[in-house]
Amino acid sequence: MPVCSSMRVVVVSLLLALSSSVVAAESNDYDQLVSLFQEFREMTGAGGSEFELLPVVDPEKIAAEKNALQGFQARLRAIDPASWPVPRQVDYHLVRAELNGLEFKHRVTRPWFRDPGTYSDIVLFMGEFISLPVAEEDLPQIRAALEAIPAIFSQAMINLQETSDIPGDLTVLAIRDLSNANAMFDLIATSFSEHNPSLLGVVDQAIVANNALLVWLKEHQSSMTAQAGVGREEYDWLLKNVYLFPYSWDELRTLVELEDNRVIVFQRLEENRNRAVERISPVQSQAEYKQSVQEAIDDLMSFLREQNLFSVPDYLTPDDYFGSWHGFDNPWPDHHDYFFNFSHREPRMEEAHEMVGHHFDQLRGQNNTHPIRKGWRPYKISTARTEGFAFALEELLMHAGYLDSRSPRSREIAYEQAAFRTVRAISDIYMHDNQWTLSDAMEYCVANAPHGELLNNSPHLWFEMATTLRGVGHHMLMVVGKVQFMKLMRDYSQQQGEEFVVNEFMDEFFESGLIPMSLIRWELTGLDDEVSKLW
User: Fold this and answer.
1) Which residue blocks in 130-199 are alpha helix, DSSP H?
2) Which of 109, 141, 168 is the last residue of a domain?
3) How far, in Å, are 10, 65, 80, 139 from residue 36 at the CA level?
4) Which spans in 221-347 are helix H?
């Protein structure tokens, strides 16, 4: 777990704030855009995995970053991309979206001062991403992270002093994570006592700091009464200026609810069609599950090559994917995660989402050498593209034939999974409009998701609701991103007519990078009816 150098952050922020305060003369030089972007990324440290960085929590350093941002925005406004070819204009608006994403963080969500989860995330991510026993080469980073916790948590109690500005629902989430952290610390301490006894002291200090913050939050929880949603006006600003969506909150609500209607109706029709077909029995052990996943991956790879839906270069392999998140080495649990209700019966949809969608996208991002488009984008700018496309694969590959050799009941599972995603998107939309509380949204999911009784107070539901309440729009982006992908494919294919080739379309789609669908559509089709609404 690499630790961000707080000194580097503040020095870079201050220097860039000074240099950026002088508004550059108007320029149409693309190289200036690239330089601006690279300097901005140097300041923010974005471009890696978000969970790798300990948060910068010093108010002076946070203010320095905000000041530097204003300088970057002034420099960007001085660049005129109007005469550039569309791909370079796309790059300009990618940079603009990224600057706007940081503005939204400083101006609206202000997580350092409004979200206690900014601090509980540290122990949450440590529990998820530390492999025990810790490898020798990782020990310095783990030690540094553990040693940083007491100071960061002490600063948390200072930063969160304006308790009336803190949403109660976000406090509930943070208290839950901090309460669960002791089990994680116990696992680390048990491992360290055997393999790294010199680190037990820093673990004890981290535990003391964790419990102190937990007690402080509980003591002040009653005064933390702000609403957790960002509100419709700011949601619309985020849609237009960061996610580059040509839709308003009202339009998104309609899109998501229509998609929810569709997948649930399709699920019910599949159930009726298959009423005489034997139900699929779930696997009963880790060995059976591991075998079923391996078979699913092999089938998917064969299907992709046989159907030639898109090019599969040599680096697109499942080599580093199999078992990376499945928990094959864990004991077979008494109570399974909600999604295992699906994947233990038919794993192909989940593997299509995670491997063909996310894993392959990650590999493409790593192999992309474009100075601006390579890798992922922070502030959820990539989410409609990455999550939306991965979600689309679950159903669209079914229509392309990847379930044809499976039980007809598999199609029901595809729609069951989809329906859980749409109810989460509906929760997202209404929570951020402050019509629903966290509790309201969780009750809605239990009542409306397939097999919702399995969700009731489950860790999975807590995780998903935290993801979308704290990461504004996350599940909405997944569902609407799928809709956008289908619209893009429709528009592109209509332009091509009889000359349309799925493989060529998909390869062009991937070549655009992990960027908003509206920009990909503009680049691939030349249609500017969506992007013209964004600036």
Assistant:
1) 139-159, 168-195
2) 109
3) 18, 15, 14, 35
4) 232-241, 249-273, 286-307, 340-343
208 and 261 housed in the same domain? no
What percent of the residues of the chain are helix, what percent strand, and what percent coil, each to the nearest 5?
Answer: 70, 0, 30
Cβ atoms 413, 266 nearer than 8 A: no
Q: Distance of alpha carbon 454 from its chain centroid, rounded?
A: 24
pLDDT exceeds 50 at position 22: no
What does the chain come to in residues? 535
- pLDDT at residue 20 in the model: 46
| Distances in whole angstroms, Cα of residue 161 to Cα of each of 111, 114, 166 | 13, 9, 9
The structure tokens listed for 516 are 């908003």
Give the residue from 531, 519, 429 showing the smallest Cα distance to 474.
429
Question: Are 424 and 529 within one domain?
Answer: yes
- Whole-number mean pLDDT of the chain? 93
pLDDT at 499: 98
Question: What would the pLDDT profile of 429-469 be if each residue is shown by its tens digit?
Answer: 999 999 999 999 999 999 999 999 999 999 999 999 999 99
Q: Is the pLDDT of residue 16 over 70?
A: no
**pTM of this prediction exceeds 0.85:** yes
Range of the domain at 155: 117-223
Note whether residue 1 is domain-resident. no
